[in-house]
């Protein structure tokens, strides 16, 4: 399967700030990484859906073990003006997309779901 998969297994010595928000994750559970976001400060984050009824979110990559190294075919590289970069589907990189998604605008939700399904179903 062509998708990046990660398992939530936070190391004992992990900086507490890297665990921010991870109470929503289940230890030992494998997640499909929907996006990789590398911040200009050096931190790398994975976007995962932590609960089917909830939104996706970005979590520190240090809290995960990679279980599949394959990248989805729909991912593209996007350089941000801040020096950060993303590997994600092109529609997700459009200005204002994530704001519209988190404000639950129907168009953004449809685009998100369509691109997510391409990642999940990629073979």
Question: Which stretches of 5+ consecutive residues score pLDDT under 50?
Answer: none
| SSE arrangement, N to C | EEEEEEEEHH
Compute the number of helices: 2
Q: Rounded to an integer, what's the Rg over CA atoms?
A: 14 Å
Strand order of the biggest β-sheet: 5-4-3-8-7
Overall form:
globular
Proportion of beta-strand residues: 25-35%
* Helix proportion: 10-25%
Number of strands: 8
Helix/strand class? alpha+beta
Distance linking N and C termini: 4 Å
Give a quick account of the main beta sheet: strands, pairing sense, barrel closure: 5 strands, antiparallel
**Mean pLDDT rating:** 89
Written description of the protein model:
With 123 residues, this protein is an alpha+beta fold. Helices cover 18% and strands 32% of the residues. The protein is built from two helices and eight strands. It has helices at residues 97-102, 106-121, and strands spanning 4-8, 30-32, 35-38, 44-49, 56-60, 64-69, 75-79, 85-89. The chain has a five-stranded antiparallel sheet, with no helix packed on it. The chain has a three-stranded antiparallel sheet with strand order 2-1-6, with no helix packed on it. A hairpin with a 6-residue loop joins strand 4 (44-49) and strand 5. The termini are close together.
């Amino acid at each position: 399967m062509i998708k990046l998969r990660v398992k939530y297994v936070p190391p004992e010595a992990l900086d507490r700030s890297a665990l921010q928000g991870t109470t929503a994750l289940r230890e030992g559970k494998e997640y499909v990484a929907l996006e990789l976001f590398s911040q200009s400060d050096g931190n790398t984050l994975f976007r995962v859906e932590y609960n089917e009824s909830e939104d996706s979110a970005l979590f520190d990559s240090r809290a995960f073990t990679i279980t599949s190294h394959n990248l989805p075919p729909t991912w593209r590289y996007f350089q941000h003006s801040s020096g950060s970069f993303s590997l994600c589907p092109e529609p997700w990189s459009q200005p204002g997309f994530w704001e519209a998604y988190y404000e639950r605008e129907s168009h953004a939700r449809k685009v998100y779901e369509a691109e997510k399904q391409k990642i999940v179903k990629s073979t």
